[in-house]
Amino acid sequence: MRPPIRARIPFSRPPPAAPHRRCPKDDDENFLALLNDVARSKQSWTIALDNPTISARLTPLHIEGFILHNLHDSRLALRFFNFLGLHKNFRHSTASFCLLAHSLVQSRLYWPASSLLQTLLDREQNHQSAVVFRNLFDCYQRFDFYSAYAFDLLIQSYVQSRKVLDSVVVVKSMKECGLFPEVRTVSAVLNGLIRIRRSDMVLVLFDEMFVGYDGLRPDVYVYTAVVRSLCELKDYDRAKEIVSSVEKNGDCKLNVVAYNVLIHGLCKSGRVWEAVEIKKTLGFKSLKADVVTYCTLVLGLCRVDEFGLARELVNEMVDYGIVPSEEALSSVVDGIRKKGEVGEAYDLIDKVGKLGAMPNIYVCNAMLHSLCKDGKLEEADLLFLKMEKKGLLVNDVSYNIIIHSFCKRGKLDEAVSVLGKMLGAGIEATVYPYNMLISGQCKLGKLNEAHALFEEMQRKGVGPTVVTYTSLIDGYSKQKEVEKAFRLYHEMTGKGISPNVHTFTALMYGFAHANMLSEACDVFKKMAEMSVAPNEVTYNVLIEGTCRVGNLTRAFELFDEMVEKGLAPDTFTYRPLIEGLCSKGMVSEAKAFMDNLHKKNHKLNELCYSSLLHGYCKEGRLNEALSARKEMEERGIRMDLICYAIIIQAILDKKDAKLLLGILKEIHDLGMRPDNVVYTSIIDKYGRDGNLEMANAHWELMVDEGFPPNVVTYTAMINNLCKAGFVDKAESLCKEMIFRGINPNGITYGCFLDQLTREGNMGEAIKLHKEMREAFLASTITYNMIIRGFCKLGLIDEALKTLVEMSDNGVAPDCISYSVIMYENCRRGDLGGALRLWESMLEREINPDGIAYNFLINACCAAGEFGKAFELQCDMVKRGLRLTRATYDYLMKCRPENKIR
Question: How far is residue 539's CA from residue 545's CA, in Å, rounded to a whole number?
Answer without folding.
Answer: 10
